[in-house]
Design brief:
By secondary structure, the protein is mostly helical. The protein is about 70% helix and about 0% strand. The chain is globular, with a radius of gyration of 17 Å.
Length: about 150
Amino acid sequence: MPDLYEGRTGRTCMRQLLDFYKFATDHTASRPDFWSFYAHLQDASGDDAGALESRLRQCRVLQARLWEENDPETFTEKLQDLMECFDLIDNTLDDPATKEISKSHVAPFGYLLLDAAKKLQEKLAATVQEPPWKPAVAQLQTLAQKANERR
């Protein structure tokens, strides 16, 4: 980001930010925003393997919190965050540049998607009215099927 502070870019603070988010995620693993920021920084610094691992952890935290949510609007927002995270991981797994480093994450990601698809389908079946997040069920099932074909 240009002109972040006194004409400097964010790259001048990269090492400090990476160190901070490493510390933050080591001590507070239940914050999805920490994992997201850490993954973005790792991506920017060229640490593709670290970014993928951080995004997987972010997804696990988001998914754990999602099923506890009772407020429909908050549930929809959290589901959107989870879907965006899934999409980022899916793109990383498809990227030829990261295919080799991501091999070991293909199966766990597939299981994560299958679990999320199953739980979301169950939640949809339990609703009385059609929720605004209904299209996410099909999107999640498509991602889960794609992940299953990768294995």
